[in-house]
Amino acid sequence: MEVCINCHVYEKNNNNKDWKSTLSLISEQFNNFRKKIEDEHRNLMENQKKLQEFKITSSYLLKELDKKSHEVLVERENLEIKVKERTKELESLHTKLIQTSKIATIGRFSAGIAHEINNPLGAILNYARTLLANPEIKKQNRDYLELILKGLFRIESIVRQILSYSGYRKTDLQLSNINHIIKDAIDFIHYKQYEKEIKLKLALEKSLPSILLDSSQIQQVFINIINNAIDAMEQKGELKIETFYKNGMIVTNFKDKGKGIKKQDLGKIFDPFFTTKEVGKGTGLGLFICYNILQLYEGSIDINSKKGEGTEVIITFLVPEKK
Ligand SMILES: Nc1ncnc2c1ncn2[C@@H]1O[C@H](COP(=O)(O)OP(=O)(O)OP(=O)(O)O)[C@@H](O)[C@H]1O
Ligand SMILES: [Mg+2]
User: Fold this and answer.
1) pLDDT tens-digit readout, 115-160
2) Ligand 1: which residue has its CA nearest to atom 10?
């Protein structure tokens, strides 16, 4: 009691009755208070548990978010790469389309002109030859006539090349084997390959289907391609020729280890008279003629090249389905 009498809690609850009832009131209050504290404590513990759970969940969510944002970033980068690739493909397709229609137009146009030039040219050549055969002709005139004839021969060669695909000359269609034509073309320029000690690697698929074509025209295509490859290589170069049948097509592949083609020239190599060879060494008609001949057979020609690394020429022929 001595202690309680001086305590302000006792004082506050002292109702002047007896000390027992005051103490019991205090004890009741104390119990209520303790209960409250216990409740609060329980609440606090629950909240702490929730907080802990929340912390775990949010750290998991943060990690997930991090993972997802990384995935989004990678996906975005992939998408950008894909868009770039597609744009590049579209651009090259567009360039090819322009090139194709340009060559087709020039092809038809030049074939028409060559046809018109061919007839009078024959007569002019004949007259020039007759004049030159005259022994009484003066020295200076003889020199001029020889120059005229030289020029006329060059014109005749160009006209002949252009007429070779124009249909003006009758084509001789026969069931032919591409491998045989390649071998004939190789025989034709064997001396050039031999001279330069070019190593020839042949991988020709044995059971290629035969197709209907004029073998002399296709031989001309292969000769042009092989000539270009040999011209592009130094002594002891290497040329690989491969043929195979795939998806209804005969594919022929010519891969050389030559000097390659500059990127800025790739769009021009099929143009008539485009050449990088020295004057007198190339007319620049080879690939133009190849392109136009292949058009006659629903064939295609594609050239991949990198300066300094080599060139790959892919020629395909559609094999008609048997009915
Ligand atoms: N395999 C190749 N390697 C490197 N460059 C090539 C190759 N094939 C073609 N070219 C380039 O393409 C150009 C055009 O070739 P194309 O065959 O039309 O004409 P050309 O060979 O110059 O002359 P032509 O064939 O009339 O004698 C060549 O001058 C050359 O620059
Ligand atoms: Mg050529």
Assistant:
1) 899 989 999 999 999 999 999 999 999 999 999 999 999 999 899 8
2) 228
Query: Residue whose CA is closest, atom 7 of ligand 1?
Result: 228
- AA identity, residue 11: E
Detail the DSSP E strand segments found in 257-309. 300-306
Is any atom of ligand 1 closer than 6 Å to the C-beta of 237?
no
Q: Tell me what pLDDT residue 245 has.
A: 96
State pLDDT tens for residues 17-34: 677 888 888 888 889 999
b/e map 264-289, b = 16+ CB within 10 Å: eebeebbbbebbeeeeeebbbbbbbb
Other beta carbons within 10 Å of 229 = 26
What is the distance in A from the centroid of ligand 2 to the CA of 228?
5
d(CA 138, CA 151): 20
Which token pair is 193? Answer: 């390959």
| Domains of the chain, start order | 172-323 (3.30.565.10)
Coil vs helix vs strand at 245: strand
Q: How far is the CA of 173 from the centre of ligand 2 (A)?
A: 25
Q: For residue 229, which ligand has an atom nearest its CA?
A: 1
Q: Is 252 in the pocket of ligand 1 (CB under 6 A)?
A: no
| This prediction's pTM | 0.73
- How large is the angle between the packed helices 215-232 and 286-296, nearest 10 degrees? 150
